[in-house]
Amino acid sequence: MKWTVDENGYYGEFGGAYVPEILYKCVEDLRTTYLNVMQSESFRSEYESLLRDYVGRPSPLYLAKRMSERYGCRLYLKREDLNHTGAHKINNTIGQILIARRLGKRRIIAETGAGQHGVATATVCALMNMECVVYMGETDMERQRVNVEKMKMLGAKVQPVIAGNRTLKDATSEAIRDWCRHPADTFYIIGSTVGPHPYPDMVARLQSVISEEIRQQLLTHEGRSHPDYLVACVGGGSNAAGTIYHYLDDERVKIILAEAGGLGVESGKTAATIRLGQTGIIHGARTYVIQNEDGQIEEPYSISAGLDYPGIGPIHANLALQGRASVLPVNDDEALAAAYELTRLEGIIPALESAHALGILPKVTFRPEDVVVLTVSGRGDKDIETYLNHFTNP
Length: 394
Ligand SMILES: *Cc1c(COP(=O)(O)O)cnc(C)c1O
Hints:
It is a single chain. This protein starts with 9 loop residues before the first strand and ends with a helix. It has helices spanning 24-39, 41-55, 65-71, 89-102, 116-128, 138-143, 145-153, 168-181, 199-207, 209-222, 238-244, 273-276, 314-321, 332-346, 352-358, 384-390; strands spanning 10-11, 14-15, 61-63, 74-79, 107-112, 131-137, 157-161, 186-188, 229-233, 254-262, 278-282, 285-289, 325-331, 371-376. It is globular, with a radius of gyration of 19 Å. It folds into 2 domains: 17-50 and 89-203, Rossmann fold (3-Layer(aba) Sandwich); 56-87 and 208-392, Rossmann fold (3-Layer(aba) Sandwich), CATH 3.40.50.1100. The protein is built from 16 helices and 14 strands. With 394 residues, the chain is α/β, with parallel strands linked by helices. Bound molecules: pyridoxal-5'-phosphate. Pyridoxal-5'-phosphate (PLP) binds at residues 87, 89, 116, 192, 233-240, 306-307, 351, 353-354, 377-378.
């Protein structure tokens, strides 16, 4: 496939594996084994049965009638919000922990920003009886108390990070440092299509169950397996990669991705990496990065913690540069309005991240016969306080 990773770990000019010497062997071991492991019968059957019986897959594909009327198309929602732990992230953590076990690793580390990936990792570590350390910036720990308590209840050690701004990128650096200290027995579970090769490809493949299901479900609902449009939000890009994976080579399918505009792409308070970003190295990969003139990574901003990341998966950087995907910024206020609209029209409270995908709908003109599939990456339980603070009187 022309849009997936090449044998050197690149998507066009993006990707690669820029890691310190001490990690070279870990990354290289993973690179040479991940495909064999993932394609083995033992992995496939264990992964599939956990997705079915533990996560609750397949997630429904729901024809949203009132929203369809509002936007003049046939709008289907891919309901990743209904998964165990409330989002798509568990598809990836289950897969990676099964790979870690097959590589003989005994200890799991992860980084987390809002805590969603941390909870999904702590969950699978409890399930598999593995030691779990989650690095989290102290600022984020204060903002996301409930997720911190969940991780502790699940048996994980939450390691506060006090470097830098004490947020996601600082937690990521600490996790990489831990990995350097324990390369032999530790597996680093990365939460999105980011990091050094082969992580972006491994995560995209694990999340590709989303588009595999969409194909079958659309065939049942519409008598054809391809939509006219796919819509998803991008932070690092994993739910988007899973949504589009099996359609990348199908030019009939238009891809629209929402990145977090924050207070506006020109405001200096934004996480619209593709719109603003210049090429740089972040988290072991070459991709678009929000940086200043000196090449220092700048603190991004979005109302949505899951989209508040200064980089973007290399697969999406390439899709955007080549014009295969359109990437539109959706600002905080547009996402909030979209979340209220879905709630009032369909009785579904989406995660703030997913609300950015919904914020695309008013920006596109559809034809009535267009089939649009939009991934609702997660549920809004974690965001209720934010919603109530912004709309005391809707
Ligand atoms: C983490 C998260 C995201 C952003 O991550 P991607 O890797 O871009 O998918 C989106 N939605 C929800 C609900 C999340 O928890």
